[in-house]
Amino acid sequence: MNHGADLYCKLFVAGAADDQALSAAVNAAQHESAKRAAAGADAVPALDITVHAQVRHLPLDDGQDDFTRWRHYLDIDAAQEDVRFDVYLGALAQLVVALHAQGWRTVAACDFEEALEAAVRAPCAI
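RESULT FIELD:
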């Protein structure tokens, strides 16, 4: 299955001290993903990630359940148009697992949230 232009996900993240800490964790996860690719998986980078810090005039708090008021989110696109959905999903799941390993919470907003949750729960299949 190839979702083409639909390979986009907004990932809300709670727990990062600041956007630099989130950027560092994202970069580390992408570096780990690149090492896996060099070991024989798809060698094409799957994710194009932009880190955002919320700047709205609302009480932003990572401790609340309303993820739209968490301080940070990621815009995640496919790095290239020809990235297959399974490769994109696997890379995205690896990123979520890496952020959870930091003790951070995530909520995905995309057209394939259930598939992403399943991939995160089964990391050995990633």
